[in-house]
Design brief:
Radius of gyration: 27 Å
Shape: elongated
Number of helices: 7
Helix content: 55-70%
Number of domains: 2
Distance between the termini: 75 Å
CATH architecture of the largest domain: Orthogonal Bundle
Strand content: under 5%
């Protein structure tokens, strides 16, 4: 085996060519999409840190071996941390929010913002003063020059409107 200097653009090309396969490989090992992405980036950074490489006859193999070693270190670290010493298996899911969950949450936030925007002005103002500014009914009533009972009624109206808009029913 010879030792050759390898340029950063060669490493970048090697990584880009095999990035998807590396992420899939790491995902099978660590069972967490975010960790697999992070480890693939760490693999790339490790190779960038090398001034020269042996194994020039099989650079993709070297790339995968580096990724595998990083995944082993990752798994060992999480097993040693003692937070949860579960075995990695097909049933173990990533504790981070998954893209589909994030998309659902984003849609719900958008519907909530639309619901708030569609409220009558005073009703919207009361809702925001209570939920965002955390003012009491008495403080809101004093600020707007209305009764506490009106504040309560408008707040209930606003919350019901938002609830109906979020679950998609007409009221």
């Amino acid at each position: 085996m010879s030792v050759i200097a390898i340029k950063h653009d060669q490493i970048a090309e090697l990584f880009l060519t095999h990035k998807e396969a590396i992420v899939d490989f790491l995902l099978r090992k660590v069972k967490c999409p975010d960790a697999a992405q992070d480890l693939s980036q760490e693999t790339y950074l490790r190779l960038l840190g090398k001034d020269s490489l042996t194994h020039t006859d099989n650079l993709p193999g070297y790339l995968f071996r580096t990724a595998e070693r990083l995944s082993i270190d990752f798994i060992r670290h999480h097993q040693r941390s003692g937070a949860k010493t579960q075995e990695l298996d097909d049933e173990l899911t990533c504790p981070l929010m998954q893209p589909e969950d994030f998309a659902i949450l984003s849609q719900q936030c958008e519907r909530l913002l639309q619901a708030i925007a569609s409220l009558p002005r005073q009703c919207r103002h009361i809702l925001l003063l209570r939920k965002i500014d955390e003012l009491t009914y008495a403080q809101i009533a004093g600020k707007l020059g209305i009764s506490e009972k009106t504040v309560q009624r408008q707040l209930v109206k606003a919350m019901l409107h938002c609830h109906h808009m979020l679950i998609g029913t007409q009221h």
